[in-house]
Amino acid sequence: MTTIDQQLAELRDQINYHSYRYHTLDDPLISDAEYDRLVQRLRQLEQEHPELITPDSPTRRVGAEPLDAFEKVTHPIPMTSLGNAFDDDDMRAWLARIERLLPDNLPENELAFVVEPKIDGLAMALTYENGLLVRGATRGNGVEGENVTANVRTVNSIPLRIPTRSDGPPAPARIEVRGEVYMPIADFNRFNQQQLDKGEKIYANPRNFAAGSLRQLDSRITAQRPLAFFAYAIGYVEGAEIGSQQQALDYLKALGFPVNPDILHTTSFAAAIDFIHKWMERRDSLPYDADGAVVKIDSFALQRELGVVGNAPRWAIAYKFPAREATTKVLAIKGNVGRTGQITPYAELEPVNIGGVIVRNATLHNYDDLAKKDIREGDTVIIKRAGDVIPQVVKPILDLRPADSQPAQPPAVCPVCGQPTTRLGDDVALFCINAACPAQLVRQVEYFVSRGAMDIEGFGIKIGEQLVAEGFIKDIADIYFLQRDDLLKLEGFAEKKVDNLLSAIEASKQQPFDRFLTALGIRYVGNVVAGLVVSHFPAIDQLSRATQEELQAIEGVGPRIAESLVAWFSGPANRSLIDKFRQAGVTLQARRTGPEQPQTLAGLTFVITGTLPTWSRDQAQAFIEQHGGKVTGSVSKKTNYLVLGENPGSKLTKAQSLGIPTLGEQELQNLAQA
Ligand code: 5U1
Predict the structure, then answer these.
(1) Taking the model in full, what pTM does it have?
(2) Following DSSP, what letter does each residue of 305-317 receive, concatenated?
(3) Distance (Å, whole) CA 436 – CA 11
(4) How far is the CA of 258 from the centre of ligand 1 (A)?
(5) Is 118 a catalytic residue?
(6) Which pLDDT tens digit goes with each residue over 604-647?
(7) Atom 6, ligand 1: residue with shortest CA distance
(8) Among the options 118, 296, 384, 651, which is catalytic?
(9) Ligand 1 close to Cβ of residue 120 (< 6 A)
(10) Which CATH architecture has domain 438-508?
């Protein structure tokens, strides 16, 4: 017979271990339901024996009674900050500085570096006594921080007792573990969206959100925020001999702390710099915000020799990534008319440099979002730029708002043609529904001739604007009725340019039917959907008669897409447009495919992202489909592979979060040969 004490201890160990498998290793051994059953059992026993509740009990992760204030705590060893480097030259200067201080006869391979991502969160010092978490303290001013133990206990990946793993080393008598508490980006975005939907305060970035969550006096609120932790240093340890940073990280990992998996140990400084550059490139695909990389001298003996200057150690440096946020002023709020007539608000800004790029405009997404965020002309705002994403206005700084500012209003008339604007159905988007609106036409032409659509070489946006302004193009089909003599009259159009343009237009008549369907710019019908639709309705006449039910029967075509297609083909103006294309000799049906390929990819679903080395996306899609596979436009649990090219978008992040494997172009071909 086991005693209640023993039962409780075993249950806590089991739960702590499974929580570690889930939150730290991302490799659970039991189902969520089984885990919940264990927690339920523990709760019940603790309710029956409240005197036996211990601070390391996983039931304590839900938070405790609110505090009046945080107690100040003095760090036994000060928490230093880091010196910064902003480019490779700064890094080389750092190395030269420390080499001057190190012994001359140091063998080359004794100077090793550890390179770690610098997570943009909140530094934390966790004290464990005989394996039990007894204190969590913020960095504060480095000498004195705040006791946030109750809040830290709610962070699932912070062990309440170490070692968490039965195969780990025994817990040292005392240890102070340092690291960063952070908020994963996906959780942050989800939270902010919910706040916007409720009309409540949003946070500017995951760092502020993590900091705000940890500074809650009511830890039950912190418990509802999905914070995470990475350990990166040992403040001090009694009862273990650790001689280097790499050993420290290995030790922390063995005790059961989450340690970032992307860390490099190298004796080559060039390799360290190279690693940082790779990090910088991958920055947008990581599930957390990293604002730089930290390079540390590995050996503790050398660290001691180098010492600290001011409040930063000489033996470590932070290579800061270019900024992604800045503060600037909104000069005006304007609307941009897209090819579907959708009017998207954007802010004209006082030009601001964000990470080396001058930003003058930033999107405001839609008028609902604009109203919820309450961004006004004259506001000082936080602007964010990440990778290829269009800069966006995150939020206004209300303390700096001019007293006479007025909320921004959606325009009653189109900013280009002056016709009344409208909302369609319950869509949040605002539209100009004037089919003759020149702004829409220019955008339609731009899209029609673009590389992903009819790919008419030499037909740039300037030409589109000129031809619309001169009245030579009144709808997109007019592209095929342009006259040589008319074009020659335009500014900048010499004979050769006109002839090249006309032959490119002529050649585009042979583009595959699915490209033509894409080029029409029907809402929700991009190249993936166009390919699906054309494989079921291979000619324009069939397609224009298809019903919503028939279209929806195609896998990958949902009600929104089907409705949009039916609405488009039922418009008399659009039917005349198709007649005009037919008259011009544009290909309006699918060609027969080549010889049958072995259906080696049958049953597999692929998503394509980024630029592939030799194939266009259409070619990759055709290859997959010819081998029996399916291509969809967005990553889901059903996706088997992500075909990955250069500069991938958010699909990579999604695929990584779902554990979906990626393939390069060559690997895709190999898979099809298998
Ligand atoms: N990854 C990492 N971040 N970070 C921040 N390591 C690291 N080390 C730090 C800081 C402030 O300080 C060391 C000097 C312990």
Answers:
(1) 0.64
(2) HH-EETTEETTEE
(3) 71
(4) 15
(5) yes
(6) 999 988 888 877 776 788 788 778 888 888 888 889 999 998 88
(7) 232
(8) 118
(9) no
(10) Orthogonal Bundle (1.10)
